[in-house]
Specification:
The chain is mainly α. It is about 75% helix and about 0% strand. The chain is rod-shaped, with a radius of gyration of 29 Å.
Amino acid sequence: MLNNIGLPGLLLIAVVVLVLFGRGKISSLMGEVGKGITSFKKGVQEGTDDALEDKSDEAKAAEAKDVTPADKDKV
């Protein structure tokens, strides 16, 4: 059904949308979409940074757990 939409069909749809909503409304909508994408990318990056930080904290905790002296077996 959607395979038959060519360039003329897409142009017609774009013109109809532009007439219905107006240039200002579409411009503000695209601005909001851009802000949403930027916010999503920032959130993903912060989540990745937090995950890496958690892994390094776990490694530090594993190193800190073993506090037994090595000479204990010789006593």
